Amino acid sequence: MAILVTGGSGYVGLNVVEALARAGREVVTFDRILPPPVAAAELSALPGRIHAVDGDLMDAGALDRAFHAAPIEAVIHTAAVTSGPAREASEPQRVFQVNVLGTIGLLEAARRASVRRVVVTSSGAAYGESLYRPGLMQEDATPVLPTTLYATTKYAAERTARRLAELWQMEVACTRLGTLIGPWERDGSSHAQGVRDNFGPHSQLARIAVAGGEAVLPADECTRDWVYSPDVGRALVMLADAPALPHFVYNLSAGIDWSGDIAAWCEVLAARFPGFRHRIARAGETPNVHYTDRARSLMAVQRFEADHGFVATRDRAAIHCAFADWVERVGRAWHAG
Amino acid sequence: MAILVTGGSGYVGLNVVEALARAGREVVTFDRILPPPVAAAELSALPGRIHAVDGDLMDAGALDRAFHAAPIEAVIHTAAVTSGPAREASEPQRVFQVNVLGTIGLLEAARRASVRRVVVTSSGAAYGESLYRPGLMQEDATPVLPTTLYATTKYAAERTARRLAELWQMEVACTRLGTLIGPWERDGSSHAQGVRDNFGPHSQLARIAVAGGEAVLPADECTRDWVYSPDVGRALVMLADAPALPHFVYNLSAGIDWSGDIAAWCEVLAARFPGFRHRIARAGETPNVHYTDRARSLMAVQRFEADHGFVATRDRAAIHCAFADWVERVGRAWHAG
Fold first, then answer.
1. What is the per-residue pLDDT across A124-176, written as a single tens digit (0 to 9) for each?
2. A2-179+227-255+304-308, superfamily in CATH?
3. Which residue of A has its CA nearest to B128?
4. Å from B40 to nearest chain A CA?
5. Does the pTM of the predicted model rise above 0.90?
6. Strand bridging mode A277-280 / A214-217
7. Which residues on chain B place their C-beta less than 8 Å from a C-beta of chain A?
8. Phi then psi for B39, rounded to 5 degrees?
């Protein structure tokens, strides 16, 4: 039996596919675009078996083709428009169509195919205004006050999935992801078909490093609720496989203090890429590395650990080392692509 | 300058139109169906001037026609699918399309027409799981945990309107309505084009009373966060007219204990309609009056009063008297229609 990964060519999706392929699993990927060649080459070298189906989430026929590419036991639904302000102002309906109606369409297709379980990826962004207040974000106790359309659609998709799971008697679990750092992020705005408007500072720095350039950083570091992307892939597979789902929604992040991480990551990159330089912007100078939001409060991560034994990597040096290995081995071609 | 009322043939919409027409205002109504003849006759006798435009919220051209029927100064957006479980299970995409994409389309049309302000009607249902916990529902402090698709779309429409107001520099206010009791409710499920799946017990009883029948009530009364429907019409007009909007979202309800209200309403109806009888169902007997949900906690109503001076009618005897007057005068034809 295979796992279907929607958005299989995207940032979260590629990490899920890698986790599955590394474990020798059978995978069907579904995305508007086929996996980028650099990723396809890496993933095909792993023991798993991958079928890539290209199609639009809004196309029920294309979805059904994906569900018939192999017998599907569970779906990990990562397809989404990760919208920034410009896209939200210019095409708000499209953001809703893909992120909410697309999730409904996916659940409808899963129901037609009698699939056992669907894992829906939501986002810590859903907490919205609460993220800028002190305290840990708790799955049910913290007011969910989404600010952006992206966050609003993520929360709406969560609650919709919960409702349809009840009405249709399906198993659905949901994760609110921290902000991923690590392999397989690319600058969606630089790709013709990109729907990911954010591009995190770690990957921005990796791209500058492989190009042998100079990073000019904002004067004030801005940390986020970061989580290593392979951990996210691994955790989502755990939810697809879990014998039981005691809760509907799980925060999924590292739950650690990341202060000083950007400077530390710059040092790691400088040691690996001799041409790479980095410094803080002078007064009045425009940095060439950007943070995608203000600092956020962290999410509580106890529930995922208590219910499923998942603990994200919390050793920052180990994350930097593994990520830098990936940047050296894959990142040159990836960030050039 | 006129006020545009979307969903102008619906329960909330007719109460808004009546409040405006009573105040001698110019109104454009927009709805898939023209106002029912009984309502049209009542409203046309009031001093205001009403233009009725029929069209679908999902049709941008039809919306533009409504915005050009008269110079529009503000919109009160009440159009929505008020879905029950059967509709949510069978056409979940449609509920989202009308309630969220329809709200986006309405805001886009308002922006094209350079309209000053839009008032969006959300629902206390948005609080969802929190409604069944003790304590008052507070606009920003209470976790919003919508359970049904209806509630999920209402909250999504709120947050979307807030985001687009910010991105597009529009004035938008939002109200979370209590459960309306009073004039202009009809059983949507009994109408071919109905999209209102709920029909409250007060109106069920009024319909039985005008038919001279016997009401068989559930053994346990179930109160809700009720509010008299003309108060809702009046309050929404206050938000459209308010010189400033210190907050984005306002609970809009009566904020009183309604216990014993169904029995009291039965007594009022019995005094006015001699053929009307009412009793509690015997053990094993199926009642012919239904509650549409479990008892809910009440919403805090201080914010609307503090910012805009709005206080709902809290004198239950006065509400019963005014509502019974309406049932005698209009309800016979309305509930037969």
1. 999 999 999 999 999 999 999 999 999 999 999 999 999 999 999 999 999 99
2. NAD(P)-binding Rossmann-like Domain (3.40.50.720)
3. A159
4. 34
5. yes
6. parallel
7. 85, 88-89, 92-93, 96-97, 100-101, 104-105, 108, 128-129, 140-149, 151-153, 155-156, 159-160, 162-164, 167-168
8. -70, -45
